[in-house]
Amino acid sequence: MYNTPISALLSLLMQITKTQLADCLLIQPPVYQDNRGLFRELYVAAKYQAAGLTQAFVQDNLSSSQQGVLRGMHFQRFKPQGKLISVLHGEIYDVMLDLRPTSASFGQWQGIYLDAQQAQQLWIPPGFAHGFQALSTSALVSYKTTAYYDPTDEGAFNALDPKLAITWPQPVTVMSDKDRAAPAFEVVKQQLIAAI
Ligand SMILES: Cc1cn([C@H]2C[C@H](O)[C@@H](COP(=O)(O)OP(=O)(O)O[C@H]3O[C@@H](C)C(=O)[C@@H](O)[C@H]3O)O2)c(=O)[nH]c1=O
């Protein structure tokens, strides 16, 4: 629909901010409010490609969580997924951790608050672990991925690992059994280094 210069211009309407972690982006698309409510675009290929999200998305996911629920920290080892995160209802604290051994921010994590009213989105490229906590009564989170879900390729480390000390904002009410049983980050880190 748009040629490259026009899509580059359109992408100026989106505010793109670099995060502390290399290659992750905080995206603030315009939110149009009127007496009916609001309108926002979730994804427009030409605009997001112009902003640097050039890989094709192949899957859309939706999860609903009650307050305090913690999901993560997850990744795929050989078929890593880039993720474009949007909150459709409520508020979350979203955490990404750089798993790329050659990256300047390898092993570092950053948490970012995302909420449906402000409508920020987070771009987490392939090569990161991801998790979030629902902070509102309920939170509806949608995310696009650049690789298919493959349960045989799934990896995880413990989001409550005291050495990582991720500062989850609220008491953790529920985690999956799988997430509670996940190893400490150091185990995953050593595996990643050994695989170089
Ligand atoms: C992630 C995923 C799960 N499932 C199934 C497997 C399982 O039966 C059920 C719930 O899966 P999980 O417990 O892994 O769901 P969840 O803990 O919400 O997993 C997600 O967490 C966040 C933090 C991410 O970043 C995602 O990539 C994904 O790992 O849904 C799919 O069919 N497709 C998928 O893409």
From TrEMBL:
- Top EC class of this enzyme: isomerase
Q: What does this protein do?
A: Catalyzes the epimerization of the C3' and C5'positions of dTDP-6-deoxy-D-xylo-4-hexulose, forming dTDP-6-deoxy-L-lyxo-4-hexulose.
By sequence similarity, the record places it as follows: Belongs to the dTDP-4-dehydrorhamnose 3,5-epimerase family.
Q: Does the keyword Nucleus apply?
A: no
Query: In which pathway does this enzyme or protein participate?
Result: Carbohydrate biosynthesis; dTDP-L-rhamnose biosynthesis
Spell out the subunit comment. Homodimer.
As its record notes, the protein acts as a catalyst of:
dTDP-4-dehydro-6-deoxy-alpha-D-glucose = dTDP-4-dehydro-beta-L-rhamnose
Q: Which NCBIfam families match?
A: rmlC
Q: Which GO terms describe its molecular function?
A: dTDP-4-dehydrorhamnose 3,5-epimerase activity
**Superkingdom field:** Bacteria
Protein's recorded name: dTDP-4-dehydrorhamnose 3,5-epimerase
Q: Which residues form the signal peptide?
A: none
